[in-house]
Amino acid sequence: METLRYGSEPSQFVELHGTPGGRGTAILLHGGWWRARHDLHQLDPMAADLVAAGWYVANVEYRRIDGDTGGWPRTLDDVRAAIAAVERPAALPTVAIGHSAGGHLALLAGGLSGVVALAPITDVPRARAEELGEGAAGLFLTGDDPAASPIRQLPIGCPQLVVQGDADVRVPAAHSRDYVAAAKAAGDDVDYVELPGVDHFRLIDPADQPWQPAREWLDRRFS
């Protein structure tokens, strides 16, 4: 594992796993409602699984809220700077895989070959109004900037997979359903998998069945 810094702030770094090339580059973006108490190590098992499948993996840390210097738009700026800093073969795909708040950032990152969004936050004002994430959305975004919500930035112009558990109380399935419907109406190429009885966190465990739709989609789209 190699650490790459893309800025001077403590949270501005990427952990690189594997060797450049192979099937392409997977950009991992962890969740946690953009809060500082959650970090990139949430996705260490996913990184190992993807390296074993032939991917070069960049697991991104970024500035967050609650004691860090993140928030809108600084957190997204970090993600874009991190992706730009990772050296990767131009001829191979670059796919962002994000969970929860990381799914939100993946859908907004731009310039990607594809996005896998696992229970993503797609509408920040709606999340704020529904008091999801213990008030995190209001800390992340003050006011109402349409650029902060993937559902208001469609089409994003690359293939997407959205995976959602219907037992998720952190990011309700209705949010993903509404995003997918809007993305398809805008002309985006979107696949949607809703998993019965699955909660918010099982999606990121590579040893558990709910991760398999993402692996299968990657195999099908980028073999």
TrEMBL record:
A family per Pfam: BD-FAE
SUPFAM superfamilies: alpha/beta-Hydrolases (SSF53474)
GO molecular function: hydrolase activity
Residue span, BD-FAE-like domain: 26-113
Keywords in alphabetical order: Hydrolase
Name of this protein: Alpha/beta fold hydrolase
